[in-house]
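Sorry to interrupt, but I need a hand with the structure work. I would like you to pick a protein and set down its sequence and fold. Please put the record directly below this note.
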Amino acid sequence: MHWTTLVSPETLSAHLGEAGLRLLDARFALMDPAAGRRDYLQSHLPGALHVDLNEDLSDLRKQGQGRHPLPDAEAFAHRLGQWGIAPDHQVVVYDAGDGSMAAARAWWLLKLIGHARVAVLDGGLAAWRGRGFPETSEVPEVAARAPYPGRFDEHRIATAAQILERLDEDSGWLFDARAPERFRGEAEPIDPVAGHVPGAINLPFALQLRDGRYLPGETLRQRLLPALAGRHPEDVVLMCGSGVTACHLLLAFEHAGLHGARVYAGSWSGWISDPARPVAQGA
């Protein structure tokens, strides 16, 4: 097992139960934060542990960093130890469907801390169930380990200050994964200010999918390359509403072989926490 972006239900099923495999169930619903845990307890992949976007993949105590601030590296390393995850394990994360809530976020945090072999189940639980693969309500007992021996690669995390410094650059470096109506400022059901960062390009995460699964890597590459306008992926910053679906877009870039893009973790909700930062609306 050496999966680093996506793994199909069929491939994962063939390795289910192997000693080096760790499964994380990251199901989450923004409007009902308790739903993920509740659904996990009803049924999940055999051997999977539940991880919560608010409690495990964020630190909601932090102010001014958006709705889902990143946890401290030390806290996340401790969590990984509690989940029995070591550097030599193959980790697979899944959520209810396409990976956007919040499997890709867990994938990114594991990448940030230096874990190489981590992938998202393509199509999530919906695809798994569609093939009739096994589930269980049994919560596994996992032997805790020492905290994971890693720290976040800060170079892969973009900040508001860095965004501000680049606002005069030509477009093609900042991409917003939100739905078009939210990007344009026509509808904003979550955050108090509508619009987008000036100069950003709307690249809705859902466009990278077909029937809840990622498009083939080469198809994604041909879609994404024109938007880069000749820039290297390492120059690119990805954002969304709170730094969650931006990770889904990052996974699309990586699956397409366009490596090295950064995520603005605070994203739109972090950007508007300072009223002095400029806001644009429209296409």
The chain has ten helices and twelve strands. The chain has a mean pLDDT of 97.
